[in-house]
Design a protein that fits this description.
Chain lengths: ~700, ~500
């Protein structure tokens, strides 16, 4: 059948697909107008709209499974000169899968937030922002136009900023929000340039438009045939520019610095935005524009992803903040996704994106539960022994941790293995494969370390001063850890089920997910495992995971960590390396002394220019104008005003004269008529004669 | 040359005049009810029922207008209905409704039935006035209107001023009606017809011979005097300040708004249709006699006299009266332009002017019930009645022609229409005079607003109490003034300007 559906929507779900983002945005709009006290209504709106979107998304997924061909709806948006800019939405397997993931994870996190944010004063605002985020993110997913995608992308960035700085009373949160906004802006500049260039080349920003879209073969072929001044194909250059946007949003090296700081936001935000959905938007963007990407671009993506995966995993080893470890882990996993996208195509990258969304949001929610239970404590050195107090959190967290490490048969195993398999088979270099393998080892190691610190050993009472809490102090008096309420644990359990079993939709034996996304025939065959090298690769990666777990146990599990002030077991062995890692490899410092210093200098220089050069000119002009003004006002006061006053007096006098005609005698009035008759008639007659 | 005997189909007449009949029936119903059933009822109840019936009649007429034929005419040009007359009639009905709503709180009379019936009868007269092109019917309708207005002016029988004003108005009106009738009979004598198009046809023959030459000019002047009285243009304006001051406020507002709309429309019809061949020209260096130079003279006089005299007034009512004379001068520019655009601009001007003037008199009525008449008494109004002060601000600024209120666009359209008239830019001097006089008018309007907004309030003044119906009507009027100003096309489209 024709792979491109007619622009006229044929099925109801396609016609009403716009409702999926519109519902949460509507909820956000209503919430924004609600008074602060309407907490219940705001939460109901947010959760209700998200449930509605989830139902619609499931319907869209069912439709996409039945009808995997891409379907689009385009509509003209506004006219610019002679051209109409069109927007539109699309439904294909990729969008359907993302829709379901975002709405499902989002709904669970919304519900979890009910418990987590229960004591917050700005509960209403929180749900307003969350709904706005969800709506914009869903907009990114269904956009059939790079322009619409970019608009939603920016709204997503805005809500990320708002939510990171949700507790803006804390200076760290405010700074983190600004940092996130500015750093992602650097990437977005690239995306914007890429978009403009793409429009200049193809004259459209619609992805698909029955053969006339910018991702369709004719446009891509035309762009591949053009070359820039440096000898690079135009499509490569545009692809790399768009990739800049993805680097910023998805926290790839070197723009990853904002993501760990973003953990200053409330934990549900970290789970939803900075682990499951928004940061994955960069990966999704690259998957969406995949037809545009050529070998060079894909190679760049693969290398950046592989380097990010290892780089962030290294840093994660030496962090002590529970959320920060997870943040670096997220950066690392996003690197895997990019690597998968670069070496193996859309299905590989997106498969890891989906599984990661489940287990990483689970990890964050688990961390939130731990933080909630430990009265806002985030330093893993001050935890310990929580296994006994928070059994549900422990079990679900362990499941997510094993999934993240890629423990055999857990969800992460299948998706990460697919990436490593494709990296191994990549024709250009084996470098990314080795980097990915090292990353896998490190992942297992740092997660084991975190598990031991948090859940095992004796309970280490907070000796260090607790970090500044945004909550009022009377809520911080609970000293012993406790399990979270069921509104928080039930989402954990649901997510845990997915973290364990979701991988089975894309095993080598039954690659349903991959075939659904890439529209290839599906067959169940255990023989897939028998393909040369596959079993060996799986064995290697499993061995790496076991090695990582073992190392973790060797350093942290063998002897229980008893005191919070004990130095790190690994740090004692290699203090230099560990110190550098603990300082996040000095990337922030590097930026401070290069980019920021340069910006400071430039701003100081501009201020100097402004104050003394331009300001001087402006002042000079203003002096001249003031002088003229003085002169003018002198003329006005003594020359013009005198005349004007005289004129006014005369006008006033005339008025009084005329009014005095009005003496109230009707005889006079009638005489005036008669006089007027004579005069008018005489005038006309005289004119006639003349 | 006798006019052809005309046979009128009465069923046709009935069908075409349903709106007028509805209003008349409402008037008679009010009279009857007030004299029978409601005789013992309280004043408030009689007022309420009177306003309700009268408004119902007007609204019914509005609906009937909406459903009647867009184009129709009766033999002898007795009734000539076009979309334009529909719009004018609708405006008249709307103004009547506003006047009625504002008279909810009248206290000067106990003859409620007669009062409302007279307003309705005057409205009927105006509706006929705008829908005919027959000199006889024009005169009859005009007299019917005038008689109703004389009585309305003198309705406050406890006030000597009111009686004096009515008497002056009546004497002046009777005199000018005599001139008008004389002028019309001269026209009939010259053309042999009382139908406007036929008069035009007769006059447009070969160049008018010297024989009837002086008579034609006299006829033109006399017609101009007759209508000049109705529209209160100088030098036939002398009744206006006295009548505006003496009449009850509601009557004065009615006099200044509705009757102006109808009179201007029919004046424009008479000169532009019947006298089109003898328009003449008042352009500098191209003077030819005709009605255009006559009207130019009247317009220039009105602008100067009205605006300058308004400067010297201390009473708000007299100020409005003189400013009305000035506005009549501006509006005459629309007739002088002698083009379809000019007519549309004139109608836009006169309708928006009427809205603002009804509103201004409504504010005045509310103020006078609290004993405020002089401009100086307005001090502190913005504190005592902020809503009322804001309405006054809107109405007066619209009259002064400040954008974005409707008065600005009215002036703009009428000036540009006059400038475009043939010969091109020939009337520039008149427009310059008009603009200069607008600047003068701004001064006296702002003087009122300064008193209301800037002047320090006398101590211990209580808040003003304003009847809810009055307040609502004033807000609607103010909203209309702003709306028609911000979106002039709402009204312009129905008046035929694009």
């Amino acid at each position: 059948m024709n792979p491109i559906a007619s622009p006229v929507a044929t099925s109801w779900i396609l016609r009403y697909l716009w409702l999926i983002p519109a519902l949460p945005i509507f909820a956000a709009g209503v919430s924004a107008l609600l008074p602060k006290a309407k907490r219940r209504l705001s939460a109901t709106l947010a959760i209700g709209s998200m449930s509605g979107s989830l139902v619609l998304s499931l319907a869209a997924l069912v439709h996409a499974i039945a009808e995997p061909a891409r379907q689009i709806v385009n509509f003209p948006w506004m006219q610019f000169g002679a051209q109409w800019v069109s927007l539109g939405w699309l439904l294909d397997p990729l969008a359907a899968v993302m829709l379901v993931m975002v709405t499902f994870v989002g709904l669970l996190i919304f519900i979890y937030s009910l418990g987590y944010m229960a004591h917050d004063d700005n509960f209403t605002r929180f749900f307003c922002f969350l709904s706005l985020f969800a709506g914009a993110m869903l907009g990114v997913v269904i956009a059939n136009s790079l322009l619409l995608l970019f608009m939603c992308w920016e709204v997503v960035g805005l809500t990320s900023y708002l939510l990171i700085g949700f507790w803006f009373q804390r200076p760290a949160a405010a700074a983190a929000a600004v940092k996130a906004f500015i750093v992602t802006r650097v990437g977005d500049l690239g995306l914007l340039l890429g978009m403009v260039w793409l429009y200049a080349q193809t004259g459209t920003l619609l992805f698909y438009n029955n053969g006339a879209g910018c991702l369709e073969s004719s446009a891509v072929a035309a762009m591949g045939a053009h070359f820039t001044a440096a000898g690079m194909a135009v499509s490569t250059a545009i692809g790399l520019l768009i990739f800049c946007g993805a680097v910023g949003k998805s926290g790839q090296v070197p723009l990853h610095v904002w993501l760990p700081d973003a953990m200053e936001g409330p934990t549900p935000v970290s789970a939803l935005i900075h682990a499951a959905t928004m940061v994955a938007a960069g990966v999704y963007l690259m998957a969406r524009v995949y037809p545009l990407l050529d070998h060079t671009t894909l190679a760049v993506i693969a290398w950046v992803g592989a380097i990010t995966a290892v780089f962030a995993a290294c840093i994660a080893v030496a962090q002590n903040d529970i959320k920060r470890i997870l943040a670096y882990s997220t950066v690392s996993q996003l690197g895997y996704m990019m690597l998968g996208l670069g070496v193996g195509g859309v299905a590989v990258g997106i498969f890891h994106l989906i599984t990661h969304a489940f287990f990483k949001s689970l990890l964050f929610l688990g961390a939130g539960s731990v933080i909630h239970g430990c009265t806002e404590e985030q330093d893993i050195r001050n935890m310990g022994g929580l296994r006994r107090f928070m059994p549900i959190t422990f079990v679900t967290y362990a499941a997510a941790m094993l999934a993240l490490c890629g423990f055999p048969l857990f969800a992460g195993f299948w998706s990460k293995d697919a990436i490593l398999e494709h990296a191994h088979a990549w024709g250009l270099s084996l470098g990314p494969y080795y980097l990915g393998a090292i990353g896998a080892l490190l992942t297992a190691f740092y997660m084991t370390r975190q598990m031991y610190y948090v859940f095992f050993g004796p309970q280490r009472v907070a000796e260090a001063a607790p970090i500044e809490s945004p909550r009022p102090p009377e809520q911080c008096i609970i000293l012993h850890p406790h399990e979270s309420p069921s509104v928080m644990t039930i989402p954990l359990i649901i997510l845990a089920v997915f973290a364990v079993f979701l991988g089975f939709v894309g095993t080598p034996a039954w690659p349903w997910f991959q075939s659904f996304l890439s529209a290839t025939p599906l067959a169940f065959s255990m023989h897939a495992f028998m393909e040369p090298g596959l079993i060996a690769l799986m064995l290697y990666s499993s061995l790496l995971v076991f090695a990582g777990l073992l190392l973790g146990w060797w350093f942290y599990g063998r002897k229980a960590i008893t005191r919070a002030t004990d130095p790190d077991a690994l740090g004692r062995r290699i203090p230099a390396v560990f110190g550098a890692l603990a300082h996040r490899l000095y990337v922030d410092e590097f930026y401070k002394y290069t980019v920021i210093a340069l910006a400071r200098f430039a701003s100081a220089f501009s201020a100097f220019l402004d104050r003394f050069i331009f300001g001087g000119v402006v002042n000079l002009v203003s002096w001249i104008v003031t002088g003229l003004g003085w002169f003018d006002s002198g003329v006005d006061r003594f020359v013009v005003n005198g005349g004007f006053d005289l004129g006014c007096r005369e006008v006033n006098f005339g008025g009084r004269l005329i009014a005095s005609l009005q003496n109230g005698r009707v005889q006079t009035y009638l005489r005036v008529i008669a006089g007027a008759l004579v005069i008018f008639a005489a005038l006309l007659l005289w004119g006639r004669r003349g | 040359m006798n006019p052809m005997p005309v046979s009128v189909s009465y069923s046709e007449l009935l069908r075409l005049t349903w709106p007028e009949i509805a209003v008349t029936l409402a008037g008679i119903l009010i009279l009857a009810l007030d004299l029978t059933v409601l005789r013992r009822a309280s004043l408030a109840a009689r007022l309420r029922s009177g306003v309700a019936i009268a408004c119902a009649g007007c609204i019914a007429a509005l609906f009937l207008l909406g459903y009647s034929d867009a184009f129709a005419s009766l033999p002898g040009s007795m009734l000539v209905i076009t979309p334009l007359t529909h719009v004018v009639q609708m405006a008249l009905l709307a103004l009547a409704i506003f006047t009625l709503l504002l008279s909810f709180s009248i206290r000067f009379t106990s003859h409620i039935g007669e009062y409302f019936a007279l307003i309705l009868f005057a409205t009927v007269a105006m509706m006929f006035l705008v829908a005919t092109q027959n000199l006889l019917l024009i005169f009859v309708a005009l007299e019917f209107l005038s008689l109703s207005l004389y009585i309305l002016t003198g309705f406050d029988k406890h006030s000597r001023q009111s009686a004096e004003a009515a008497l002056k108005y009546f004497l002046f009106g009777g005199m000018s009606a005599g001139f008008l009738l004389f002028g019309m009979s001269l026209l009939y004598g010259l053309s042999g017809s009382i139908e406007l198009p036929k008069i035009a046809a007769a006059l447009s023959g070969p160049a008018p011979g010297p024989g009837y030459d002086p008579l034609l000019w006299v006829a033109i002047v006399m017609v101009a005097i007759g209508f000049g009285f109705k529209i209160a243009a100088a030098p036939f304006h002398l009744w206006a300040p006295d009548a505006y001051q003496g009449a009850p406020t509601v009557s004065a507002g009615f006099l200044a708004s509705s009757s102006k709309v109808a009179s201007f429309f029919i004046f424009a019809q008479v000169v532009a249709v019947a006298l089109a061949p003898v328009a003449g020209s008042g352009a500098a260096r191209a003077y030819t006699p005709g009605w255009v130079p006559t009207l130019i003279l009247i317009a220039a006089l009105s602008m100067v006299v009205g605006n300058l005299a308004a400067l010297a007034q201390t009473s708000l009512r007299r100020l409005l009266a003189y400013s009305a004379i000035g506005h009549a001068g501006y509006m005459l520019l629309g007739i002088i332009a002698h083009s379809p655009r000019g007519l549309s601009a004139l109608l836009y001007y006169v309708i928006t002017y009427a809205l603002a003037v009804v509103g201004a008199f409504g504010v005045l009525g509310a103020l006078e019930s609290e004993g405020i008449d002089r401009i100086a008494d307005l001090a502190g109004l913005s504190k005592r009645a902020p809503g009322l002060a804001l309405c006054l601000l809107i109405f007066l600024l619209s009259l002064a022609g400040i954008p974005p209120l409707s008065g600005f666009f009215a002036k703009f359209y009428i000036f540009s229409a006059a400038l475009e008239s043939e010969p091109h830019l020939g009337l520039l001097w008149l427009i310059l005079l008009a603009v200069a006089m607008s600047a003068v008018s701004l001064y006296y309007y702002l003087r009122v607003l300064k008193a209301a907004y800037v002047a320090p309030a006398p101590l211990d003044q209580p808040k003003l109490r304003i009847a809810p119906a009055t307040r609502l009507t004033l807000w609607i009027l103010a909203a209309l003034v702003v709306l028609v100003g911000c979106a002039p096309s709402l009204l312009l489209n129905s008046l035929g300007i694009r």
